[in-house]
Specification:
Largest sheet: none
Radius of gyration: 17 Å
Shape: elongated
């Protein structure tokens, strides 16, 4: 694989994917109530009245950190792979 293909793979897959993972992880960490309700609001008659347990919010925050770290690893791994093929 040539260096040009490595760079295009990084720019097309790893960089946007890493940015999306970091964004979703930060959203889940800083607003876990909203992240937990995403895609489920239609299931409740009054979705604003739903309050999640402290354990669910804590797990959501931990998952947010892990997702952000995965996104960061995708970006850094892609940079290292492009620099040192």
């Amino acid at each position: 694989m040539t260096h040009s293909n490595d760079l295009s793979s990084f720019l097309c897959i790893l960089l946007p994917g890493g940015i999306i993972f970091i964004g979703v992880g930060l959203w889940q960490f800083f607003d876990p109530q909203s992240a937990l309700m995403a895609g489920r609001r239609w299931q409740y008659r009054d979705p604003d009245a739903i309050d999640f347990s402290d354990e669910a919010v804590g797990c959501s925050k931990i998952a947010g950190i892990l997702i952000s770290l995965l996104g960061f690893a995708m970006i850094v791994g892609g940079i290292v792979f492009v620099i040192h093929p």
